[in-house]
Amino acid sequence: MDRWGNYKSIIQEDRPYINQKTEIQNLDAAAWLLDSINTPQKATMKISYESDDYAYVQDKKSSVMYDIIGVSSEANGPIDPIGSLRNSSNINRYLVVRILRSIGEPMITEARQLFPLFDGVQDLYFNALVRVVEASSGLPSRNERITGFIPIDFEASEANRSFGIRERGATTEHVDFWIKLPIANQHVEVSYSENPLTYGINMHPFTLAAREYIMIEKPLLIKPDHSEISRDLGQAFDDLGTTFDEVFGGGGLHGYIDRNNRALHMVYESSMIRLNHLFQSKKGGGARVKKITISDNWERCKQVEIMNSKMEFMVQNIFIMMETNHLE
Predict the structure, then answer these.
(1) CA 177 to chain centre
(2) Where are the beta strands (DSSP E) in 73-135?
(3) Quick check: is 244 in a domain?
(4) In angstroms, what is the C-alpha Rg of the chain?
(5) How far apart are CA 47 and CA 60, in angstroms?
(6) ∠ CA(55), CA(56), CA(59), 5° rounding?
(7) Which of 31, 112, 117, 267 could be a cystine partner for 159, CB 3.0 to 4.6 Å?
């Protein structure tokens, strides 16, 4: 089930959201619902369902979590195979994101068609799996789920400059597109800029969020190789002084974390960003009746050809037009 208690055929622990692929969600929405009725007159009613949908939550456009499938240093450059957020001094600031297409949805062939994703979005929410500790000194690597917001404010005129479709990224099954993220800078204060600054530490926004997470939520990860053994008071003060000089000297805490290459890789699987629904028709968890098909077995009673004929019934002065074999 998803987080609201609705049936979900595809189970993803880190993605408890409604599947937005129409063909799958329509089947999920119909689970556990009445699908047929047999009447005493031997007629049958078949009920078909579809997922409900919505475009707004109060005055806000409905939004969807889209899968991150890669990062790159260029809009159409190769996706980094190991999820590096920085290669040497080069920051892989381009996110590559995938939208799964449903049957009947229009093809996306131009970057300007993507603007509804960003319309009104000023803070890009992300939920990513980031490696906060690299494997070293006999310690295993460690990934943590990092969430946060990145300031963006794209205009429609920025198509192919701030966002665009990847080369050969539009298929009948999905659309792969790129987003150019601002560069985060850690100095006296945190800032975001179009180009790297000449002071402070320039980094990927995911790296910044992960390092802040380490310092605030998991301070033990600042120096994970520090052994936890019993010490007397004198040894404890000596150890404290050594650790203080190591961690806070030479650029302070931020410098120490940067020198130890923390949060420089991400795991693509289960990493997502939140944007508007491209077609403003987000699938909900509920269901609605799509079609009712009635088979009254009339042909067994009348040995005549009545296919495609229509019958009229007077019910309390209301005429109901009913197909002999199908009522929709």
Answers:
(1) 14
(2) 86-87, 90-91, 94-100, 123-133
(3) no
(4) 28
(5) 33
(6) 150
(7) 112
Q: Give the C-alpha separation, 204 to 186, whole Å.
A: 11
Cα four-point dihedral sign 201, 202, 203, 208 = positive
Dist. CA 132–CA 218, nearest whole Å: 10
Nearest to 154 by CA among 135, 193, 180, 174: 180
**Residues 160/110, Cβ–Cβ less than 8 Å:** no
* Contacts of residue 209, Cβ cutoff 8 Å, sequence gap at least 6: 126, 130, 146, 147, 148
Bridge partners (DSSP) listed for residue 130: 144, 266
Q: Rounded to two decimals, what is the model's pTM?
A: 0.78
47 inside domain: no
**Does 281 reside within a domain?**
no
**pLDDT surpassing 80 at residue 321:** no
The predicted-structure confidence for 17-69, as pLDDT tens digits, reads as follows 888 788 888 888 888 899 999 988 888 999 999 999 888 888 888 899 999 99
251: number of CA atoms within 13 Å, CB side? 12
Secondary structure (3-state) at 79:
coil
Residue 164 backbone dihedrals phi, psi, to 5 degrees: 180, 170
Q: What is the mean pLDDT of the chain?
A: 82
CB 294 within 8 A of CB 32: no
3-state secondary structure of 198: coil
Length of the chain equals 328
Asked if pLDDT for residue 238 goes beyond 70, the answer is no
Per-residue tokens: 323: 């197909």
Q: Is residue 144 part of a domain?
A: yes
Q: Which pLDDT does position 224 carry in this prediction?
A: 74
Residue 31 neighbours by CB under 8 Å, 6+ apart: 7, 9
CA distances from 212 to 33, 35, 192, 323 (A): 47, 52, 15, 65
What is the total count of domains within the chain?
1
